[in-house]
Amino acid sequence: MVGTHIIRLGMLSNVAAVTMLAPVLLAMAPKLGLHPVAFTMLVADTDSFAYILPTQITAAVIAYSSGTFNMTDYAKVGWVSVLIGIAYGILVMASWYALLGIPVWDPSAPWPFSAAD
Hints:
- By secondary structure, this protein is mostly helical.
- The chain has helices at residues 2-7, 14-32, 36-47, 58-64, 71-100.
- The longest helix is centred in the C-terminal third of the chain and has 30 residues, at 71-100.
- It is elongated, with a radius of gyration of 16 Å.
């Protein structure tokens, strides 16, 4: 998850970042012994908390243009927000996905939302 935040440093849109990373994550998950869909959803969810630079979130670009704060101020708070987002993903979302029947740590778990045969 930290890797996706580093990759995203120069991107403006969360949607563009997840669109770019999703196929890579889906392919990488089985090699790591993780459920492909749960892993991709987990990384995509935590990627929404990318606040290291003001250019990563559209609303932050608007706020940054006001001149009230500089890039260093934003980065100081942003690292804390990213760490909170990663902790949230690991502690809350991974557990939630397990309750839904798609544990991140079980690559053989069936997709629980398919139509009954």
